[in-house]
């Protein structure tokens, strides 16, 4: 099953942007993520629409972070990159008149709802500032070695 890595990939980009106060071109970000610049522009456009990044065209232009790291959560970024579903598990509705299928679907749907509420709650509690501080701490520790 293919996973949706847009959240982790964009968090990666945003933390680099926060650390290095300079614009990143779509091509530079694409190289960082080993993807196509068109994919980067499409994803970054969602972040820009929500005010988390801004872009400047022309020489010396590119993408820069535009949000307050202390107020921006992982859930904010998840929503901005178009994350619709937290889990890829689905229900089988081939035979809705089957009692077994209805019982199974009910149990699975309930478990998914509880798990999604828990995960969304957790993502909403973690800010970009917290991730940035953890990243900076690792960088400082590696420099001391």
Structural description of this entry:
This protein has 145 residues and is mainly α. The protein has one domain: Winged helix-like DNA-binding domain superfamily/Winged helix DNA-binding domain (Arc Repressor Mutant, subunit A), CATH 1.10.10.10. α2 packs across α3. It is elongated, with a radius of gyration of 19 Å. The chain starts with 5 loop residues before the first helix and ends with a helix. The mean pLDDT is 90.
Helix/strand layout:
Layout: H1 6-19, H2 26-33, H3 37-49, E1 53-56, E2 62-65, H4 74-80, H5 99-125, H6 128-144
Antiparallel strand pairs: 1-2
Helix pairs in contact: 1-6, 2-3
Rg calc: 19 Å
Tally of distinct domains:
1
Question: Could you give a short account of the major beta sheet?
Answer: 2 strands, antiparallel
CATH architecture name: Orthogonal Bundle
The span between the termini is 39 Å
Structural class: mainly alpha
- Average of pLDDT: 90
Order of helices and strands: HHHEEHHH
- Proportion in helices: 55-70%
**How many distinct beta strands?**
2
DSSP strand content: 5-15%
- The level 1 CATH classification is Mainly Alpha
List the total number of helices. 6
> CATH-wise, what's the superfamily?
Winged helix-like DNA-binding domain superfamily/Winged helix DNA-binding domain
Widest sheet, order of strands: 1-2
Principal-axes shape call: elongated
CATH topology tier name: Arc Repressor Mutant, subunit A
Poorly predicted ranges: none
